[in-house]
Every structure is written in C-alpha cells, then in structure tokens.
Design goal:
Layout lengths: L2 H4 L8 H22 L13 H5 L42 E3 L11 H15 L4 E3 L4 H18 L4 E3 L3 E4 L5 E3 L9 H8 L3 E7 L5 E7 L8 H4 L4 H7 L5 H15 L5 E10 L33 E11 L6 E11 H4 L5 H11 L2 H6 L6 H17 L16
Antiparallel strand pairs: 1-8, 2-7, 3-4, 4-5, 6-7, 6-10, 8-9, 9-10
Organism: [Torrubiella] hemipterigena
Keywords: Membrane, Transmembrane, Transmembrane helix
Protein name: Alpha-1,2-mannosyltransferase
Length: about 400
C-alpha cells in the first residue's frame, strides 16, 4: 500500500496525525513479522509448543491410585487380552482407547518370571537392550519417580515406598532414587520394577519425536539397537509395518503432537510365535544376526510349538519433561491353552484368514497357517458340538477381550 496516495483522500487531516497513524501501522507490522517469521524461534530450549500451551508446565499430577482389588503375586492371573476380531475384513488402525490413569501398569503372578528374564537379559545384553541418551536422562528420571509413586499405592503387597525410593517386598531389592548419582541407568531400575518394556520419545526442535531412552528386554521380534535414535516414522518404516504411510503415519504424528499429560491411552496387538521364548523369538534368526526374517523359521511345526503373543501398549506424556512414555506389556500363552476359551478358536481362525498379503507376510503366516488353521477349525467344531451357541461375528463388544 502507498500511504502517500492514501493521504489524498483525507484533505482535512493534519500531516502530524497522518504520520502518527502510519507509524502505528509500521510498529504493528514489525511485531507481527518478528513473532511469526523469526528464523531462530525454535532454538529456544524453553520453546512453546502446542502441547506446552495447552497446560501450564507441571500442572498435571498423577493421581494416587487405589490398591488393585484382591491383587496377589500368587493368584492374580494375567488379564485375558484376545485382541483379534472376526474377518473377513482386517482393519489397519492405531486402535487407541482411553484408559484411566490408575490402570497405567498391569502386574500379575507372572511377575517373577518376567523379573528373572529381565535380570538375565540386563547381564547378558546390557546396552544392546537398555540405553539412555543424555538428552533423555531427565525424562528417564521422571519416569522412575512416577513409578516409585504409583507402584506402592497400586500394588502395596509387592512394593513399599521408602524414605529414599522404593523396595520390592518379594525380591528384597531396594532402590535409592534420590539425586542424580544413581547406581544404574534409571531405565534399568524402571525395567526391574515392571513387567513392561519401556520407551521414551523425546520431541526435537523440528517437531519430530525420537527414541532416546529405552528398556527393550522382552520384545521378541525387534531390537533397541536397531531403532535407537530413530524418529517415530523411521521406527515403523524400518520394520516394514504394513500400510504405515497411507493409513497410520499422519494420524500417529498428529496424536503425538496433541497428546496431553492428563490423557492415557492403550492399544493391543497380537502375533503368532512358533517357539517358546518370551525375550527373543529365535525362529526368526539369532538375535545378533545382521538380518532377521521369517524365512529362517521352520514351517508347519507341531501345534505344541505355537504360541499366542499379545501386547498391551500404553502411551502418556510425562508432565515435567513432556516426553512421551510408551509401555509394552507382553502376554504370552500356548495356543493349546487359549483354545479352551469359548469362541476363541473360531474367532482367531477367522482373524488370521482376514489378513491381506502384506499383513500375512509381516506376521509370517506362511510358516504356520496350515497347522494352526486346521487345529483352530477342529477346536471350533468341537465347541459347537459340545453345545456352545453361535456368536454374532460383526460384534465389537468386549474388545480387546
């Protein structure tokens, strides 16, 4: 706009007034440019992001959970997650659902086995399975503090809060978490407290989230050493996750940016495994092999070697550091056990048949479908012959059970 020409339309105004108006416009224009076009605005370590604007720093505080009703290290069984649906359509989605903060961590009577497997893996594998980048150290400490507050309240027969940290009443382990001079990487201590694997995603100046702290001891099919430092997208594309770009990536990135500290989410998945090893499925290759593939798995092994592997994953944003905490709890059962449950054989057979070619390749179906599906079909018919009534195949009620 040429202000000299605009002046011709206001012959009755004094030049001093017009100059003041022009100066005012220039000041406003300069401030707008400074706010929105400043090239180094993301270099401020206290940068303002969408999620930090939503709530003042540190406003959310994790509520103290009530004790888990009737929980016992001897009698509390793993929750029966059966996160598969009848076909013929297999939907590729994030599958997120809101969960109450009190249900953040799930423990059961398999804790001793998980604890022993983790302890052995920490000794045998070390930083190949547990690692914390210096940029994520504060977030790892915060996660440890959150667990130290949560676990004694939720599972008082297993954990006791102490003046300096937390004590495991079953194992006798006691952890001092005060100060920054911890005896172990905080992610190591965290891993000893829960049955879950743990990962911390840290936001970068460009808005991407990177995996910069993790305790991945029981993952079965992937290695922390392959994924450490990767962005959220690269973690999934490097693992050849089916339909990631077209169906998952956009929504996942938006979800991470918008996740608030007071919202907890969970999702479930499932796999078929053809060996009995919880920490690492050796059927896809030696854990130290450069390349891993279902091609190494033996085909059509006896049904006794087929295992149902399911993960319950939670996501939350830590209130102080704003890191996103990802927990991965694995449930691991012989197929021969879960087929005793009503409708499970027929539903699982239908779900496995519903996978498209890409999903089937990703899950290794070609290596076990003949034996597995024949067995599931037979068990399904037996249930019907025993008087089990049909169930609506299009129902979503009860998922993920």
């Amino acid at each position: 706009m040429d202000f000299r020409l605009e002046m011709l339309y206001f012959p009755g105004l004094k030049w001093e007034i017009l100059l003041c108006i022009c100066a005012g416009f220039l000041v406003v224009f300069y401030n707008l440019c400074k706010q929105y076009l400043q090239p180094n605005r993301y270099q401020n370590p206290e940068k303002e992001t969408k999620h930090s604007r939503d709530k003042p720093h540190g406003e959310f505080k994790m509520p103290v959970p009530p004790a888990y009703p009737g929980w016992s290290l001897k009698t509390t069984k793993p929750l029966p997650y059966r996160a598969f649906r009848y076909g013929p359509k297999y939907n590729v989605t994030m599958g997120l659902r809101v969960v109450a903060p009190i249900d953040w961590i799930e423990l059961d009577n398999q804790f001793p086995k998980f604890h022993a497997d983790k302890a052995a893996r920490i000794i045998e594998r070390g930083e190949q399975c547990i690692k914390t980048h210096e940029e994520a150290f504060s977030a790892a400490v915060e996660l440890l503090e959150e667990l130290t507050e949560y676990l004694p309240a939720r599972y008082p027969s297993l954990y006791q809060k102490t003046a300096t940290g937390i004590r495991n009443l079953w194992s006798g382990e006691s952890f001092n978490i005060q100060g920054r001079l911890l005896q172990e990487d905080p992610m190591v201590i965290c891993s000893r407290l829960v049955q879950d694997d743990l990962a911390l995603m840290i936001e970068q100046p460009d808005g991407q989230y990177r995996l910069l702290a993790g305790s991945i001891l029981l993952a079965g099919f992937w290695r922390l050493s392959d994924k450490f430092g990767m962005t959220l997208s690269d973690i999934h594309t490097s693992g050849h996750v089916p339909h990631f770009h077209e169906k998952l990536e956009g929504g996942m990135l938006k979800f991470f940016q918008r996740l608030k500290c007071d919202k907890f989410y969970a999702r479930n998945n499932y796999f078929i495994q053809v060996d009995e090893s919880l920490p690492w499925s050796y059927s896809i290759g030696d854990e130290d092999s450069p390349a891993l593939s279902w091609s190494t798995a033996e085909k059509n092994k006896a049904i006794e070697h087929h295992w149902f592997r399911s993960e319950r994953q939670t996501l939350r944003r830590l209130p102080k550091t704003k890191a996103i905490c990802f927990t991965i709890r694995t449930y691991f059962h012989p197929i021969t056990d879960i087929v005793k449950e009503d409708h499970v054989p027929g539903r699982l057979a239908s779900a496995v048949r519903s996978w498209d070619d890409w999903v089937a390749e990703y899950k290794g179906r070609e290596k076990y479908e003949q034996v597995l599906l024949e067995y599931l079909d037979r068990k399904h018919k037996e249930q019907l012959c025993d008087g089990l009534g049909p169930v609506s195949e299009d129902t979503t009620e009860g998922y993920p059970w």
